[in-house]
Design a protein that fits this description.
46 residues, mainly alpha, 1 helix, elongated
């Protein structure tokens, strides 16, 4: 038993420096969301 979850978020800033900074922060935020999902799924279904 298991599942696969896919999500895709695309964004672009005109300012390359801002794009780089926000990209790093955004990637960390997405990783945190995935980890929270995994923890909750483990709690409910483990």
């Amino acid at each position: 038993g298991g599942c696969e979850v896919f999500f895709f978020v695309d964004f672009e800033f005109r300012n390359a420096i801002l794009q780089g900074i926000i990209g790093i922060v955004f990637n960390e935020a997405m990783q945190r969301i995935v980890r929270a999902f995994e923890r909750r799924a483990a709690t409910l279904y483990a």
